[in-house]
Amino acid sequence: MFDLIIRNANLPDGRMGIDIGVRAGAIAEIAPTIAAEAGEEIDASGCLVSPPFVDPHFHMDATLSLGLPRMNVSGTLLEGIALWGELRPTLTTEAVVERALRYCDLAVSQGLLAIRSHVDVSDPELVTVKGLLEVKEKVASYIDLQLVAFPQDGYYRAPGAAEALERALDMGVDVVGGIPHFERTMDDGARSTAALCRIAAERGLPVDFHCDETDDPNSRHIETLAAETIRHGLQGRVAGSHLTSMHSMDNYYVSKLIPLMAEAQISAIPNPLINIMLQGRHDTYPKRRGMTRVPELMAAGITVGFGHDCVMDPWYSMGSGDMLEVAHMALHVTQMGSIENKRALFDAVTVNSAKILGLEGYGLEKGCNADFVILQARDPQEAIRLKANRLFVIKRGKVIADTAPRVARLHLEGRPEIVDGASYAPIAQIDNQ
Ligand SMILES: [Zn+2]
C-alpha cells in the first residue's frame, strides 16, 4: 500500500511509461508497472515528471520591488545598483518578508522548490538579512531557501561591509558571497576574493560570488577564485555566478582558465535572462551577448546551473519564477539547440542546480524525496520549448499546487474543437530521440 502512485510518467532521462510509488514522503518504488493500491493516484498520461526546479541564483530581498522608488531608466547594472541604494534605507523587515513570501507563492506554482538567494549585507541594520531568515523559516516546509551573504556595495569598497558580512554569517546565513569586480581596483577585487575564501574555509561554508559580471575581458577574478579555492581546499564548494567577462576574453587565456576552474571543481551559474539584458550596453554594433561560455564549461565537466537572478526589481522588470523561461533564453543565447543540448539545459535548471545547492534526497531514485513537478509536455525538450504548464507540484508526496491543463477552444468550421499546444511535436522528432 502506497500513499500516492503517479502512473504512466515520462522521466527526464528518457524512460517512458513509469509508475512512481510514494510512501511516507519518499519514493518507495519506481518501475514500469506497480501492481498495488494507493491512497491517491495521479495519471500522468505520458507527461514529463521531473524533480522540482531549482534556482541557484536569486535576489529575494529585492524581488517584486519594481518601481520603488522609481524605474531604472538606463536599464544598466550600475543604475540598478544605484536604485537599490536609494530603496534600501526605506526598507522594513515586514515589507521584505511580505514581498518574498509572495514570490515564494509564485515559485511554488511554477514547481520551483529550492532557491539560493543572495541577501544584501551592506545595510548595518541588516534589515534584509533579518527578513529573509524569517522567510526561510516560514517556507521551510515547501521551499528549500539557502541564503548567501552578499556585500552588494563591495566588501572593501563599502564602509562596514566586512563586519556586517561576518554578523550575517553569525545570524545563520549559509553561504559566503562577494563581488570582486565591483571593488575599487582589480587588486582590491583579488584581495576580497582571498579574504572571503579564507572566511569560508574557517567557517566551513560554501562560497558563491557575483564574479566578473562585466564585458571587460580583463576582469579575471574567476582565476583568483579558482586559485584560492584550491589553496583553501574548498574544491566542490565554490560557485562563480555570471562570469560574463569570459564571453569577451581572449581564447588563448580561456584555454588555460577553464581547466583551472575544472581542477578547482568550481560550479558556474550563468543568468541568461538578466545578462542578455544588461551586457553589451557599451557596444554599438555588433553587440556582445555577454553570456559565459556554457557549452565549453559543460564539456570540461564543470557543473553549470542557470539562475533566474531577478524578478521585477531594480535590475530586471520581467520574469515570472519560471525556470523553463530561463532555460529557453539560455538555449537561444548559447545556440544549444540539439536534443542532447536541450537535455543538458533541462539538467541545468534541475539536477545540476540541486548539486550546486547540495540538496539531499533530490532526484527520481528509490529513497529520494517524493518531490515532483508534472509538466504538460512529454519530454525535457518539449518542456523548454513550451515553457510547459505545471499540472501538479508535489512536495513529500502531497500536492501543493495544481493548474488546469492549458488548452484553447477553437470556433472554426471543420477544424478541431480543442488545441493543446503540447500535442504538436512532430512524430519524426519523437522517433528520432
Ligand atoms: Zn545576482
UniProtKB/TrEMBL annotation:
GO terms assigned for molecular function: cytosine deaminase activity; isoguanine deaminase activity; metal ion binding
Keyword Hydrolase in annotation: yes
Record keyword Protease present: no
Keyword field: Hydrolase, Metal-binding
InterPro entries recorded: Amidohydro_3, Metal-dep_hydrolase_composite, Metal_Hydrolase, Metallo-hydrolase_Enzymes
Domain of life: Bacteria
An example Gene Ontology biological process: cytosine catabolic process
Domain called Amidohydrolase: residue spans: 40-400
PANTHER family in the cross-refs: CYTOSINE DEAMINASE
Record protein name field: Cytosine deaminase
Gene name per UniProt: codA1
